[in-house]
Amino acid sequence: MFLFLLLENWIPFAPEQGSSVAETVDWLYVFLVSLTIFFGVAISLTIFYFAMRYRRRSDDEYPDSIEGSHKLEALWIGIPFAIVMVIFWWGASVYFTVFRQPTDPLDIYVVGKQWMWKFQHPDGQREINELHVPLGRRIKLTMGTEDVIHSLFVPAFRVKADVVPGKLTSIWWEPIKTGKYELYCAEYCGTKHSGMIGYVIVQEPAEYQAWLSGGAGGGSLASNGEKLFSQLACNSCHKTDQSGRGPALEGRFGKSEALQAGGTVTIDENYVRESIVNPRAKIVAGYDPVMPTFQGLVSEEQLLQLIAYIKSLGDKKPGELPGGTATPTTAQPSAAKPAPEQPKPSTPTPAVPNKK
Amino acid sequence: MIEATEAKLKQVEPRTHYLNANYGIKSWLLTIDHKRIALLYLASITVFFFLGGAFALMIRLELLTPKGDIMTPDAYNKMFTMHGIVMIFFFLIPAIPAVLGNFLLPLMLGAKDLAFPKINLLSWYVYNLGAIFTLYAIIAGGVDTGWTFYTPLSVNSTSQVTPMAVGIFINGFSSILTGLNFIVTIHTMRAPGLTWFRLPLFVWAHYATSLIQILGTPVLAVTIVLLGIERIFGVGIFNASLGGDPVLFQHLFWFYSHPAVYIMILPAMGVISELIAAFSRKKIFGYSFVAFSSLAIAVYGFLVWGHHMFVSSQSVFAGMVFSFLSYFVAIPSAVKVFNWTATLFKGSISWDTPMLYAFGFIGLFIIGGMTGLYLAALGLDVHVHDTYFVVAHFHYIMVGGAVMAYLGGMHYWWPKITGRMYPEGWAKLSALLVFIGFNLTFFPQFLLGYQGMPRRYHEYADHFQVLNVMSTAGASILGVGYVLPMIYFIWSMRYGPIAKANPWPGSGLEWQTSSPPPTENFEETPTVTWDAYEFTKDNSRRYDVVKQGS
Ligand code: HEM
Ligand SMILES: [Cu+2]
């Protein structure tokens, strides 16, 4: 109990324990620190003792030589080996807690960009360098980058993950108390790397709800994705009634699919992302490689909106009318209708992308 | 018999040796004597050490306060990039092999020179050619990518990445040539009777290092060429939007650069083995375990590169494998520490400066090595990766370890190299300053790292300041500790007391010739009938009795 208190507030120079895994990580740290102190002190004292005890008294001293001892060698190879295997096992198990995907998390989408963090909440609120999250939910970030590699790091939560061009990475934590926590970019990303910082603000759920409604933006992520889906004319092939040239997307997310080239793939964020920017990489069995690439036509943020939309279709059956989860805007927007709340895309978005 | 010896003594007095055998700039720049080449390297490397040191002091000065008040973010980024590049590629990697290794290997083997003396000279020129490109890159505006050159940042950067890459590419060949030369020399040029298991551990360490140099450095060369192609032609090897993979660069980079950290530390371990043996007058406990541990480190060193990439989006499975293998590297390092400690048992231990450096090395190496265990522990590395914790870890190993060993070795062999003793009092003072300054500089960085201060930050949150101030204060003490030897070494070349052939005494063949050695190293090829580190009154005085009698 005392030790527990010690850990809670007393590890010198440790950041606050703001997430459910923080304490787990700290225990491993405390174990390693103790080990270091033990071996460091033991060896240093031994050396110091020998160096004093056997200090050279006269210049003519020539001690007898000692060859070595296989028994001792075996001992000091064996014991450290056992110890490091414990560390390995412990480190790996902590890692699994840190990285095992949570069930039913609050999904938040992140885009890193020199030099800011852009967050999008499922209901469409956007923030830059500040992230509000409710207490009592597991928070999952799905992260992409517009330019170079960044790394999202919240010391209080003991989590960090690189954000790598060309794919989506993710990270999650469960906040255990309200507060304002520092957020850093940990992968050197150019001139203002040290300015790419921000805060995570953990609020009581009610407060968070209030914050959400205060800053509500235009439509949920999924509904924005839906608008994009028709603007980009994705729906001309991915028809809900299966009559299009591409597969219907309802009820697919999270499932595994057979591939044309053999093998299977799980339809997850990264697969959806890849299918949009590089559609020919993995073709689902039964379809032709006819989809054009949208590389350069959709920004990283728009990709995330499309993914959020397709994800929201995951619970539906083919044939059901698609619609956003939070704001049910069921009317099918026409392909030409501009979506006013869209962030400015980096390239003008044509209604029908050019075929390559 | 006695008359003959006396006649010989008269004849060699004043003696010719490799330093005064001939004079003039040309006799140095065209020399193929490994000892002179070692001194040429010493000069080049010292320049880079102090250049890298100047960058380091600028970094620490900037970090004295949380705000970026003495330089712009760009300037700061260039500072730490060039500090890293200069220190790693132009100081740490060549330091011990090219200076001490070059000077000592043939002497320790009882050989006249290295196997390929001209290639040896060539490798010094290659080093300097690389250095010219690097200096050009620095003067032309510098590089801001970090010494790791991660893509896509390094592909997009408008700074002098290309000339810098050319410099490092060329420099790599110097490393390969030296490694090749050492391996062939160790295989073919050992004196009669000098079997593999009579070799000093310094030689074993250099053998293992050379293996890494010739196997690993080409990968660096390939990586740099790919980076160049990517910058100039943009073919998309590392560009995701063209179907490439930005993380591929990290794999290639660490496949060389992880073994490269062992290029820096293995020779240092070799030096420490020599120092511990000589200043406790004992054979290294478990000699063959220590010898094989060098080879084990060299081999395992190639299998663990992925531990730099636990949070890089590498798969969980790969993370597990790399973590697991990393722990195997820890064992041979631990073996060395235990064996050095055991060597002291019932020894005759002197507290001369080189031994102080050796003690310092062991202390710092324990901390540096044990914190490696933290970083290899997956779940914990997620938190401390890319923070100051990592910065502290590798400085404990590379600066606390490699530089301590380098300085210890310089003091130990200084009488052999120059024929003069250094001033013991000043040397002890500098060893103390280095030790205190070092710990004050880098220990706080472990704490900063666990608190969460990311590395490569130009500005930082206010609550990190106290530890940063300590670190900067330490750096200035460390700086004094490094400048002192430079001053008294130069002083001693003129005014130091004349050194005996074997002043400590040491047991290796390098001590069985005069100080400084003649150009051809030995007057006659020695025949070895004793094991490494056989310290007996007779052996240690072998040369003194026969040749010098001083
Ligand atoms: C011979 C001793 C060692 C040397 C020379 C050495 C050197 C280094 C260097 C230079 C780096 C940092 C590179 C950079 O990011 O710029 C590093 C990082 C690392 N070292 Fe060591 N190290 C040694 C011992 C160990 C041991 C024994 C282990 C593991 C058991 C270890 C594990 C690590 C890990 C996992 C990292 C990456 C940490 C991160 O980036 O999060 N090291 N080491
Ligand atoms: Cu960044």
Structure described in brief:
The complex is a heterodimer of chains A (356) and B (550). Chain A is of the alpha+beta class and 356 residues long. Chain A is 32% helix and 17% strand.
Describe the fold and architecture.
The complex is a heterodimer of chains A (356) and B (550). Chain A has helices at 2-10, 22-53, 70-99, 205-214, 221-231, 269-277, 300-312, and strands at residues 106-113, 116-120, 126-128, 130-134, 139-145, 150-154, 159-163, 169-173, 179-185, 198-203, 256-258, 264-266. Chain A is built from seven helices and twelve strands. In chain A, a hairpin with a 5-residue loop joins strand 2 (116-120) and strand 3 (126-128). The termini of chain A are far apart. In chain A, 32% of the residues lie in helices and 17% in strands. Chain A has a five-stranded mixed beta sheet, covered by helices on one side. With 550 residues, chain B is an all-alpha fold. In chain B, 69% of the residues lie in helices and 0% in strands. Chain B is built from 18 helices and no strands. Chain B has helices spanning 2-11, 25-29, 34-62, 73-109, 117-139, 153-156, 161-188, 201-233, 246-280, 287-300, 316-344, 353-376, 378-384, 388-418, 424-451, 465-495, 537-540, 542-548. At the A-B interface, helix 2, helix 3, strand 7 and strand 9 of A face helix 4, helix 9, helix 10, helix 11 and helix 12 of B. The complex binds protoporphyrin IX containing FE and copper (II) ion. Residues 150, 185, 187, 189, 193, 196 of chain A line the site of copper (II) ion.
